[in-house]
């Protein structure tokens, strides 16, 4: 069991957010935590639009770029966060306005994010950077502790280990939860054998194509005026499927290892031998002659066509400008109506509307799309009961 603070409030100089975790219940039955949010008047006046949710386990508390991050809309009303390790967790919810912000979800590797967000930025407003202070309108942090028994466990027998490897054969990351593992298992024992056969056929086709492409590319390099490598160099590595050997830079793979440079054929001491002329130079010369002959024969006809084309294009541009002006006026009017509607709905998330406990079967008035909200909440409510996450972090 896990004790949760059902009315966690963190107030910064820019306002505050109240978080209701786990429906307000102090008993944690799943490793998936529903999170709801309500705003102080100061935050509501700054029009929060999106929420950046940051979750870190105990081993990641001192890191500014590790953990898990999610971006949700304020109008989603509720978010479901899966936890992937037992022990203590910090969950931060940062409210953002509608100004442009960096991609806080962009990853650099499996565990790190590109944009660093130290928790001190959330805990202490005086630590905010200029950009962070411009887009953040409020923030809250909750701390929870997750029991180990809430997580799914792998089968530790030899057969179980073999099954795990086969099911996750083509996946770089382990499954998030039991549902994803079951989905992979279905594919592993239905489509995966056929896909493996297709892969071997596709690999053979790739190898055959590269075997033909390598000589043709080197001939093309010769045509363009560069001395190529031996025409069949590295061909054997293609059939070994040694990607480190038969791939590489264009110059290393296709061009000569001895000399480099346009039309350079050999270098002996201070003497450099050049190709007298290249295939591409002959082609350009032939093209110039053909175009010149064409212009002389059809200059009058092409001039008339050019004038007509200019007139038509000018008319299309003028019509497009007119349509753009009308569309812009309509968009501005709709945007104003949209803002007024959103501001009125946002009052449903004020602190005085926040309940002590939340009944997921009795949903509030959504901003739009009651069916979508019911479906999403119903889906996660069912998934929490049958799909335990794996402890993968």
Explain what this protein looks like in three dimensions.
This protein is α+β, with helices and mostly antiparallel strands and 393 residues long. It has 3 domains: 8-151 and 352-370, Sandwich (Immunoglobulin-like), CATH 2.60.40.10; 158-189, no CATH class; 193-276, no CATH class. The chain contains 11 helices and 12 strands. The protein has helices at 41-45, 119-123, 130-135, 158-167, 178-188, 191-224, 235-240, 243-246, 250-254, 279-346, 370-386, and strands at 8-12, 15-21, 32-39, 50-57, 68-73, 78-82, 87-96, 107-108, 112-113, 136-146, 264-268, 271-274. Strands 1-2-3-6 form a 4-stranded antiparallel β-sheet. The longest helix is centred in the C-terminal third of the chain and has 68 residues, at 279-346. The protein starts with 7 loop residues before the first strand and ends in a 7-residue tail after the last helix. Residues 3-15 have low confidence and may be disordered.
Topology:
Layout: E1 8-12, E2 15-21, E3 32-39, H1 41-45, E4 50-57, E5 68-73, E6 78-82, E7 87-96, E8 107-108, E9 112-113, H2 119-123, H3 130-135, E10 136-146, H4 158-167, H5 178-188, H6 191-224, H7 235-240, H8 243-246, H9 250-254, E11 264-268, E12 271-274, H10 279-346, H11 370-386
Antiparallel strand pairs: 1-2, 2-3, 3-6, 4-5, 4-7, 7-10, 8-9, 11-12
Concise summary:
This protein is an alpha+beta fold and 393 residues long. It is built from eleven helices and twelve strands.
**Do you know the CATH topology of the largest domain?**
Immunoglobulin-like
Number of strands: 12
- Whole-Å distance between the termini? 20 Å
Contiguous runs where pLDDT drops below 50 for at least 5 residues: 3-15
- Number of helical regions: 11
Shape category: extended
CATH architecture of the largest domain: Sandwich
CATH class type of the largest domain:
Mainly Beta
